[in-house]
Fold this protein.
Amino acid sequence: MVYTPALAEGCIAGVMRRNLIEKLTAAGYKLVEGKVTVDELLDAEEVFLTNSIYNLRWVQSIGDKQYTNRQTQKIYAAFFSTN
């Protein structure tokens, strides 16, 4: 399951966000748009960000919380890898 902030929460309605949402849903990922709280981020197994320069960027940690990147790597390989 992938959570993303809703546009009303202040994220940018960018091309990368839109394309990744389309690709994730087409690949069968369940996508939830809404308010993402700090507590939800700290409870997450993985966190990543997107933009048009870096495509998809894994967040390694927030404070003392360390994140894995297994799903992030799979998503990157499936949608952004040039190999």
About this structure: Helices lie at 15-26, 38-43, 70-79.
